[in-house]
Amino acid sequence: MSAPDPRLALNAALRHLIDKTRRLQTAPDAAAEATALVAQASALLDAHTVATVESQAGLAPGMGGPATGMGRGPDRLTPEEFFPYSPVIGPLNPLAPPMAMTVNEDLSITGTVTLGAAYNGPPQSVHGGVIALLMDELLGCTAVVNDVGGFTGTLNIYYRVPTPIGKPLRVRARMGKRERRKTWIAGVIEDDDHLYVEAEGIFIRPRMADEG
Questions:
Q1: Please, which contacts does 25-28 make with residues 24 or more away whose CB atoms are closer than 8 Å?
Q2: Residue 210 has pLDDT above 70, yes or no
Q3: Does residue 209 register a pLDDT over 80?
Q4: What is the CATH number of the domain that holds 97?
Q5: What is the pLDDT of residue 143?
Q6: How far apart are CA 137 and CA 159, in angstroms?
Q7: Mean pLDDT throughout 119-147?
Q8: Residue by residue, what is the 3-state secondary structure of the chain?
Q9: 10 lies in a domain?
Q10: Does the pLDDT value for residue 62 go beyond 90?
């Protein structure tokens, strides 16, 4: 068994730091000391970073991407394995909450997420733009799992009630109809008490993907 990627622990520590920084009260001495430590850590990593990033699936141009597709079974990658640098589900992106996804037998997706202080918008609630980001990724991954991955054409978000900060939430999405290169996908954010968000998206498969 290979050793865990040390970047996983680094990204987890950075998420914790981001949360603490968002909650920080006025503390000049502590903030100054923390700033110096963060600058030292950043300088330590300077020699080990790439100049140009590639996508949420691969680190940099020429360094490769996923070895196989996203889905179920031993020959398929989980969503977080397929998109390790995603700002939503990526374990190697400190901005990701991260949201955990499971691919079901019918190729729908279910998952869980808890959004901390960094994602706060209205009082005690998640920022609406963050909600849109999460739903775009959820619906987009559902398209990829069903081998119709493409670009977001439209994304309609229906905010039913404010989505709470710091509370475990469930997400789910499933395929709708297909029409040529277009695929309709729907999803929700919910818990046992409320339906917080409904979303509908149309994803457009690149023409070159069908030609290939």
A1: none
A2: no
A3: no
A4: 3.10.129.10
A5: 95
A6: 17
A7: 97
A8: CCCCCHHHHHHHHHHHHHHHHHHCCCCHHHHHHHHHHHHHHHHHHHHHCCCCCCCCCCCCCCCCCCCCCECCCCCCECHHHHCCCCCCCCCCCCCCCCCEEEECCCCCEEEEECCCHHHECCCCEECHHHHHHHHHHHHHHHHHHCCCCCEEEEEEEEECCCCECCCCEEEEEEEEEEECCEEEEEEEEECCCCEEEEEEEEEECCHHHHHC
A9: no
A10: no
Per-residue pLDDT of 20-29, as tens digits, reads 999 999 999 9
What is the domain range of residue 77? 50-211
CB 57 within 8 A of CB 83: yes
Residue 182 lies in a domain: yes
The CA distances from residue 114 to 24, 35, 75, 99, in Å, are 20, 27, 29, 8
Q: How many domains does the chain have?
A: 1
Burial of 29 (0-12, 13-18, 19+ CB in 10 A): exposed
Give the rounded percent of residues in the chain with a pLDDT score beyond 70: 95
- Asked if residue 175 belongs to a domain, the reply is yes
Assess if residue 130 is contained within a domain. yes
pTM of the model: 0.91
Q: Give the list of residues 6+ apart from residue 37 with CB closer than 8 angstroms, or none.
A: none
